[in-house]
Amino acid sequence: MNLCDVRLSSYDNAWYEPGPFWKRALWLMVGYRATRSGLPSSGLRVSLLRLFGAVIGNGVVIKPGVRVKYPWFLVVGDHTWIGEDCWIDNLTTVRIGSNVCLSQGTYLCTGNHDWSDPAFGLRIAPVLCMDGSWAGAKSVLGPGATLGVCAVAAAGAVVTGVVPDYQIFAGNPATFVRRRVLKQTVPARNEVAR
């Protein structure tokens, strides 16, 4: 007796083409394993990702254990930190701005399944982390999620929509907690002398 009309046997994502087979295979055999490893150099991980098509700015730190599904769908600004065991599951574009922090264990997910489709069809949407934003440890940014300028997804937060500029969201589902107020910075010595 069948109480449900879900038909996973009819699943078909033939419309989805993430890139040539040879490129995906080479990435999985060489690049993916190397970036996941304990390579002692962030620079080597950055170079490998760039070699496979990622656009990565200057001063980016990528810690060991980071997973990137498809580097050619990754854009990262300057001076961004990507912590241990982050998973950038980018079936489509993930854009990470400058001075962004993705804390350890953060999961950026660009794909999901259509729960209303009996065949469980694939749905994809980009993820965006604007300049100065911070995704706390073990936070999840789902398909279509955006962290605004200097926005924060607190540790363990599950974000499926937009966290507006300078706001802190926490929980599952993530909701507004408070505004983010940055302390005034002290000018560097060479700036004081001017």
From TrEMBL:
InterPro entries: Hexapeptide_acetyltransf, Trimer_LpxA-like_sf. Keywords: Transferase. Belongs to the transferase hexapeptide repeat family. This is WcaF family extracellular polysaccharide biosynthesis acetyltransferase. It comes from Terriglobus aquaticus.
